[in-house]
Write a structure and sequence with these properties.
The chain is an alpha/beta fold. The protein folds into 4 domains: 10-202 and 243-297, Rossmann fold, CATH 3.40.50; 207-241, no CATH class; 337-498, Thiamin diphosphate (ThDP)-binding fold, Pyr/PP domains (Rossmann fold, 3-Layer(aba) Sandwich); 519-655, Rossmann fold (3-Layer(aba) Sandwich), CATH 3.40.50. The protein contains 25 helices and 21 strands. Strand 3 (145-150), helix 7 and strand 4 (174-180) form a beta-alpha-beta unit. Helix 16 (388-400) runs parallel beside helix 18. The longest helix has 19 residues, at 27-45. Mean pLDDT is 81; it is low at 203-209, 233-242, 297-302, 314-335 and 647-659.
């Protein structure tokens, strides 16, 4: 068994006050110890690694000089805040990172008074910190407002909107730290990235304007008078030779670039910025994955790490309880391919068959499975950076030109481009395909990343077709089908592994080709029906297998489409059964079940009582996906329990299952 790492300085530090007791000479050693603790922990828990490793010195410097119990610190995205957590009274719980009832993988205002926001998306920190600063000014509060923004996030339109606004304000104290590591999850793209490259390679340091002024004023007898007369000329000269001109034109006082891994340089720069009023931008150069062996050879610079597999443990003895009526679910053959991998293969086949197909991602080529596509079809791949708004609007232009754009964007991130979905795609009736990865409950990434709202926020838009596949094969078929449509479409699929068709429990029937707005009956039954949407079909089939053992036989239907809904099929189903349950990995409000209820309500009386099973209307904290499924009452046992109760809301306690 590996021995725990020696961290003598870190052992003395549990909060910023204890950090401040260290001498500045000790801070580099503390940084090394922090990196080791993060490495050791994240290798066990999983989580974001590279971004936090890159801001260790910056984090130490911030807490050494500021008081963020009073001052406000906003981390853009928030996934780089692991060293911040370790320094703010959470190190004893750091081993619970991203686990149920443990620490969040992001900054979280409900977790600590040192966290200003629950932040999980990019680009908004400058806006949030500016709002805090403006409020502080109005209320007369004397405190600092600091935003740490990555260079990729700085390319977000909303980030520039915040800088533009802040630069026009007088007497507002705001420090924006540009954490320039040239990476998001992928390499940073765009003209701003090229500009920052020029700043990195420049030979002049930050205080060029002050330096020129000092040189002129040093001229004997006439220096001060000459400096006063040549003020505009000095500014022009400074803009020619000094970095940061673009930020100063926006109204910020610019400092940098500074070496983000030189503890002395970082603390000196932060100290200077702290003593300034107005809006200031500190440009800090860091290395994503600093200290992670081999990170420089990885495409994502060690962006994230998977947890180590835990050794098998004997299950703890349980206290005897009332015996469950339902047996455990029969184990299913472990599917070995992720939904994202199925999508990747599908994109390759689609591009090979149609040279109009073009893939678009928003800084997520790896996460969305487009790395191989990028390498094979570089002329038909676009990484728009962390700018979902831009990605969607650009896709509409490509569709206008006759291309067949496929926007591969996580469900939770497509929310960021919502206005563009409507204005540039829906209103124009353009054939843009939205491939929504991580749709549904995502587990450890928690509330900021759950893709639980895409059905509700897209279904209300006229002319869009919405689909969800039950297995990996059907994902490819739906992508093919989407490209035949004359208007916009969306295909949602989950995080995790997708079953092969032969792995679906209790179904070996004939596959039915996809037809617009038509569902697929997978197995017959006379004691009720389950209509499942997307990957929840697997759960429905498992529930049906459990019920078979109790002599209850339910029909299982693969909905396939949420819009247009198979109204004829739904009404027929409701007329031949007493109970119909809808099942989805989405919030109940406005989801697939709501669609079915609207259909039934608009057609008058039907025989069946329709019950909706979905995610409750609540903010769900981070936990494993299996745990959150149990928490939401969406396991196969919960579904089966619905059919073993005479009441519309069954007593699941008597069945050995719980919500």
């Amino acid at each position: 068994m590996d021995q725990p790492s020696s961290t003598p300085l870190f052992d003395q530090v549990d909060n910023p006050e204890e950090l401040k007791r260290l001498s500045r000479d000790q801070l580099p050693e503390l940084c090394a110890e922090l990196r080791q603790v993060i490495m050791d922990t994240v290798s066990m828990t999983g989580g974001h690694l590279g971004s936090g490793m890159g801001v260790v010195e910056l984090t130490v410097g911030l807490h050494y000089l500021f008081d963020f119990k009073n001052d406000r610190l906003v981390w853009d995205v928030g996934h780089q805040c692991y060293p911040h957590k370790l320094l703010t009274e959470r190190k004893s719980r750091f081993h619970t990172l991203r686990q149920k009832d443990g620490l969040s993988g992001f900054s979280n205002r409900w977790e600590s008074e040192y966290d200003a926001y629950l932040m999980g998306h990019a680009g908004t920190a400058a806006s949030a910190a500016l709002g805090i600063a403006m409020g502080d000014k109005i209320r007369g509060l004397d405190r600092h407002s600091v935003a740490v923004v990555g260079d990729a996030a700085m390319g977000c339109g909303v980030a520039f909107e915040a800088l533009n606004h802040a630069g026009s304000l007088e007497d507002t104290r705001l420090l924006v730290i540009l954490n320039d590591n040239r990476w998001s999850i992928a390499k940073t793209v765009g003209a701003l990235s090229r500009y920052l490259n020029k700043l990195r390679s420049g030979t002049f340091y930050n205080r060029a304007k002050e330096t020129v002024h000092n040189l002129i004023q040093a001229i004997p007898l006439v220096g001060k008078d000459l400096d006063a007369r040549l003020g505009d000329t000095v500014d022009m000269l400074k803009n020619m030779v000094a970095p940061g001109h673009i930020f100063e034109e926006l109204g910020f006082r610019y400092f940098g670039p500074v070496d983000g891994h030189d503890m002395g340089e970082v603390t000196e720069a932060l100290e200077q910025c702290k003593n300034l009023d107005g809006v200031t931008l500190l440009h800090v150069m860091t290395e994503k994955g600093k200290g992670v062996p081999g990170s420089e050879d990885r495409y994502d610079r060690a962006h994230a790490a998977k947890p180590q597999k835990k050794a098998a443990q004997k299950p703890a003895k349980k206290v005897p309880v009332e015996p469950a009526v339902l047996p455990p679910v029969v184990p299913v053959t472990k599917p070995g391919r992720a939904w994202t991998a199925w999508f990747s293969d599908s994109m390759d086949k689609l591009a090979e068959a149609d040279d109009r197909v073009i893939a678009i991602t928003a800084a997520m080529p790896d996460g969305t499975g487009l790395m191989e596509f990028r390498d094979k079809y570089p002329d038909r791949f676009v990484d728009a950076g962390i700018a979902e708004q831009h990605a969607v609007a650009m896709a509409s232009g490509l569709a206008t030109s006759g291309m067949r754009p496929i926007c591969a964007i996580y469900s939770t991130f497509l929310q960021r481009g919502y206005d563009q979905v409507f204005q540039e795609v829906i209103l124009q009736r353009l054939p843009v395909v939205f491939a929504m990865d991580r749709a549904g409950l995502v587990g450890e990434d928690g509330a900021t990343h759950n893709g639980l709202y895409d059905i509700a926020y897209l279904r209300c838009m006229p002319g869009i077709t919405l689909m969800a596949p039950k297995d990996g094969h059907e994902l490819h078929e739906m992508m093919q089908f989407a490209l035949t449509l004359a208007g916009p479409s969306g295909v949602r699929y989950a995080r995790g592994n997708a079953p092969h068709r032969h792995e679906l429990v209790g179904w070996s029937g004939k596959h039915q080709p996809i037809e617009l707005g038509k569902m697929e009956i997978l197995r017959p039954g006379s004691d009720g029906a389950i209509v499942a949407y997307g990957h929840m079909v697997q759960t429905a089939l498992e529930a049906a297998a459990l019920l078979d053992k109790r002599g209850v036989h339910v029909e299982v239907v693969n909905a396939r489409f949420c819009k247009p809904l198979d109204e004829e099929g739904i009404l027929a189903l409701c007329d031949r059964h007493d109970r119909v349950v809808t099942l989805e990995d989405h919030v109940k409000v406005g989801g697939f079940g709501s669609t079915v209820l609207e259909c039934v309500a608009s057609h008058g009386h039907v025989r069946a009582q329709v019950e909706v099973m979905g995610v409750p209307d609540d903010i769900l904290e981070h936990m494993s996906r299996n745990q959150v499924v149990e928490h939401c009452g969406l396991s196969a046992e919960h579904v089966a329990a619905r059919f073993l109760s005479a009441d519309s809301v069954p007593s699941e306690r008597s069945l050995g299952v719980s919500n």
